[in-house]
Design a protein that fits this description.
heterodimer, A: mainly alpha, two-stranded antiparallel sheet, about 75% helix, globular, B: 7 helices, about 0% strand
Chain lengths: ~500, ~210
């Protein structure tokens, strides 16, 4: 089962590199995505945890939660990509900002990298060994860097270079953290216990770990994986990569990749809890979380590029998740729920933004007015998505943000509550302003430029619509299976109802 | 034995200063490769001369780090025609002076971290941190993409140093994975440098400044 989950995208990805671009490659993507998603859904029926490869890979509640989100998003993106790839995109495209011509990289490379990216994320979710986890997180960086440079022009090159360099540096710090973690087990092995970086072993012997080394390891991993997760002030790669990457890639980066890095931090936090150092880890998470929220909220106010705005909103929501886990209790459940909601809504928004960008040929908020009239379906999705992402009812983000707020009040952290609410309010105002401006007003650039098409195809609307419907359902009704899974996953993090 | 270890540590620190003060990229590449060889020696020291699996593993890693990766960087230098870091953001004298500060900071930070018993020198942790900070500094303070890749390699060296010194032998699979990742990262960075060079006619990363708020 686990092997199949990893091998399907790996083999399909390798196959995509072998064959020339064409119909086969375009069909391969949704087919393997659907197969992967089917397998993940089948995994829900199996009793947890189940493992493979001598416990190095295993699915527990946290894995299953994040894997389902990643796989579901990937399926939506794969369906969307049917419209995105294809013969119409082959000719040189005129850059809408500076007017020069550029070409895309070949579809084969794009699809191949996407599938390998999925394989790497699957391993991140299933890794039970901190070393394997690290290798997989680094692999996600390497697989996604060429995706950011899919449009061959200098801005995407700049974004890809920053992404690669900054994330590699961050991931190096996390590797040092892994080594520190290994050193912290020295005392336990000296007592004759069998020790390695397998998380179950670490959790069992957590009390024997050297606290100084463990703390240092946690800090290094928080900063290292936090870079990849987009926590301020290490987020500087994120807005560039998200705004310059093709929209389906942005959706995956924001919806799935950030979660994977978050999962790595959660594994470490669970270990801290087991070692009795939970409070140390939680305080750091709250600090970085609030910093990210405040930082992002302030930058949201002055954004004029709507894809960058979505990117900063991701930084903000990543902060919300960190704060939630940092508060513990019911807020930790809320944080995991928030991760699910945020992934769905942000992916939907990026896909809708892709439609808008394709039709309007501009990323400037002032150029895209009157969306509701110009692009009825995508425009409606875009506006609804913006409302959802600010945490308005009846969408899922409202419930999860409310859970975190409840956790903050119950634990009596009033300063944290204040900053949390202020940042949310500021972000709400900033995003609402954009929603109003783009919904009404007159489109300045409605004249579809050369290469732009005013039509909306079915798949291009269906994929984000499905994701947004998901968030809406989660806001109105929480499936009991999901609720149980959230509770189980949060239990290791000191979370409870 | 202990004094020999200490000599190797001092050599690593000196190489870091050489990296901070050198303007010729060739010198930097050379220093990075030399660091990798020293760390390889350090790894073999506790095992004596008897051939074993460790020998093979360490030998392979050192080969990649001291020969293959520097070779890739040298190739990028040849292809782009960049031999020298001309206008760093911070001058070389300033860099060396800041390096002294970084070294002091590394010793301060490392104070609470006691090395478990097992024959390793106590200087190891500060030297690891100092090497890591040197790498970070090179990435931040230098303009050429190639120097930034070198900085990344220095960071990797520091991690490798820590890993072998504690014989963190998290089984060969993880070792191999780590190695493969580093190799792939440098490889991808090499490709990117090629593209940057073609797109901008040079590899000064401060030209990469369109994206900001």
């Amino acid at each position: 089962m686990i092997w199949a989950l990893i091998l399907i995208p790996t083999l399909a990805g390798a196959a995509a590199f072998m064959v020339p671009s064409g119909r086969f490659v375009r069909v391969l993507l949704p087919v393997s995505a659907a197969a992967h998603f089917g397998m993940v859904m089948a995994a829900w029926t199996l009793p947890l945890p189940f493992s493979a490869a001598f416990d190095w890979l295993a699915a527990d509640a946290l894995s299953l939660l994040f894997l389902s989100v990643a796989s579901g998003l990937f399926l939506a993106v794969a369906i969307y990509a049917i419209f995105y790839l294809g013969p119409s995109r082959k000719r040189p495209i005129k850059d809408y900002l500076e007017g020069y011509q550029f070409a895309d990289r070949s579809d084969s490379v794009f699809v191949g990298c996407l599938l390998l990216f999925l394989a790497a994320m699957t391993v991140v979710c299933l890794a039970r060994h901190m070393g394997v986890l690290w290798v997989a997180v680094e692999a996600t960086t390497l697989a996604s860097a060429p995706l950011i440079y899919h449009h061959r022009h200098h801005r995407s090159l700049e974004a890809a270079w920053k992404y690669l360099l900054i994330c590699s540096v961050g991931i190096s710090l996390a590797l040092l953290g892994n080594f520190f973690l290994a050193v912290s087990t020295a005392a336990a092995s000296a007592q004759g216990r069998e020790m390695s970086l397998l998380t179950p072993l670490l959790m069992k012997n957590a009390a024997l770990l050297s606290p100084e080394w463990l703390k240092a390891a946690f800090l290094l991993m928080l900063v290292g994986y936090g870079t990849k997760m987009g926590l301020a002030p290490m987020h500087s790669w994120l807005p560039d990569a998200h705004s310059e990457a093709p929209s389906p890639v942005s959706a995956l980066l924001s919806g799935a990749l950030l979660n994977c890095a978050f999962l790595a931090i959660l594994r470490m936090q669970a270990l801290m809890e087991a070692a009795g150092l939970g409070a140390f880890g939680r305080e750091r998470l709250i600090f970085f979380g609030l910093l990210s929220m405040a930082w992002a909220a302030m930058l949201l106010v002055s954004q004029t590029d709507y894809k960058r705005m979505l990117a900063y909103s991701s930084v903000e929501h990543v902060g919300v998740m960190a704060v939630g886990v940092g508060l513990g209790g019911i807020a930790a459940v809320g944080a995991l729920f928030h991760a699910v909601n945020h992934s769905l809504v942000k992916a939907a928004l990026f896909l809708a933004a892709g439609n808008i960008l394709a039709a309007m040929r501009s990323k400037d908020i002032h150029d895209v007015g009157g969306l509701l009239k110009a692009l009825p379906a995508s425009g409606a999705l875009w506006i609804a998505g913006l409302f959802a992402v600010t945490g308005s009812p009846p969408f899922g983000l409202f419930s999860s943000e409310l859970l975190i707020l409840k956790g903050a009040l119950l634990s009596g952290r009033f300063v944290v509550t204040g900053i949390y609410l202020a940042a949310l309010a500021l972000a709400f105002a900033a995003i609402l302003r954009v929603a109003l401006k783009t919904a009404y007003g007159s489109p300045r650039a409605a004249e579809a430029g050369p290469g732009g098409s005013g039509r909306e195809t079915f798949f291009a609307v269906a994929a984000p619509a499905a994701l947004l419907t998901g968030v809406l359902i989660l806001g109105l009704w929480l499936p009991p299976a999901l609720w149980r899974l959230l509770g189980e996953a949060a239990a290791a993090l000191g979370g409870s109802f | 034995m202990q004094s020999f270890l200490d000599i190797l540590m001092i050599l690593l620190v000196l190489l870091n200063f050489r990296l901070l003060g050198a303007s010729q990229l060739g010198t930097c590449v050379h220093s990075v490769a030399f660091q990798a060889v020293i760390i390889g020696l350090l790894a073999l020291l506790p095992h004596g001369l008897a051939p074993s699996w460790t020998w093979l593993m360490v030998g392979a890693v050192t080969l990649v780090k001291a020969v293959v990766l520097p070779g890739l960087v040298r190739r990028a230098m040849r292809e782009t025609g960049v031999m020298q870091e001309l206008e760093p953001f911070l001058g070389y004298t300033v860099s060396v002076i800041l390096g002294v500060g970084l070294l002091a900071a590394s010793f301060l930070v490392a104070r609470p971290l006691r090395v478990p018993a097992g024959g390793m020198t106590q200087v190891l942790v500060p030297v690891t941190i100092f090497t890591m900070l040197t790498g970070l500094y090179l990435i931040i303070a230098r303009r050429k993409a190639i120097t930034q890749v070198l900085g990344f390699l220095v960071m990797e060296n520091s991690i490798y140093l820590f890993g072998v010194a504690f014989a963190v032998e998290e089984s060969w699979l993880v070792q191999a994975g780590v190695l493969l990742d580093v190799f792939a990262a440098v490889f991808v960075m090499g490709i990117m440098i090629y593209h940057i060079n073609r797109e901008f006619d040079n590899i000064d990363t401060d030209r990469l400044s369109d994206l900001k708020d």
